[in-house]
Amino acid sequence: KILGPEHPRVAATYNNIGMACDFKGDHDQAINYHQKSLEVDLKRCDPEHLVVAPTYNKIGRNYADCGDKANAIAYLRRAKAIYLKQLGSTHPLTKSAENSLAKLNN
């Protein structure tokens, strides 16, 4: 209530809850909380801002863990595109996103 629903700490809290759900194996809930985090971040950041890429990546990985290959690929591609644009093709985060996509395409 003090920070407001669009404050970056609100997004970080949703992200942390999503990671806890992921750790417990509750991937549907993890996706839900990561989506909430993404919504908050997108209200204050450009859709290609580096701050949103990790959230796209987490959502993609959780979809993969749920067996939803199509959504996993879509979100991982978004993460990869942002990493590629912002960090370049040789950055470890770009490579990690590429590796996650490659695993899904095999």
Structure commentary:
It is a single chain. With 106 residues, the protein is mainly α. The chain has five helices and no strands. It starts with 7 loop residues before the first helix and ends with a helix. The model has no long low-confidence stretch (mean pLDDT 94).
Question: What is the topology?
Answer:
Elements: H1 8-24, H2 27-44, H3 53-66, H4 69-87, H5 92-105
Features of the shown structure:
106 residues, mainly alpha, 5 helices, 77% helix, globular
Sum this structure up briefly:
This protein has helices spanning 8-24, 27-44, 53-66, 69-87, 92-105. The chain has 106 residues and is an all-alpha fold.
Describe the largest sheet: none
> Taking all residues together, what is the mean pLDDT?
94
The oligomeric status of these chains comes to: single chain
Q: Low-confidence parts lasting 5 or more residues at pLDDT below 50?
A: none
Radius of gyration: 14 Å
General shape:
globular
Q: What percentage of residues falls in helices of 4 or more residues?
A: over 70%
What distance separates the N and C termini? Answer: 46 Å
Give the class from helix and strand content and strand pairing.
mainly alpha
Strand/helix succession: HHHHH
- The proportion of residues in beta strands is under 5%
Number of alpha- plus pi-helical segments: 5
Give me the count of strands: 0
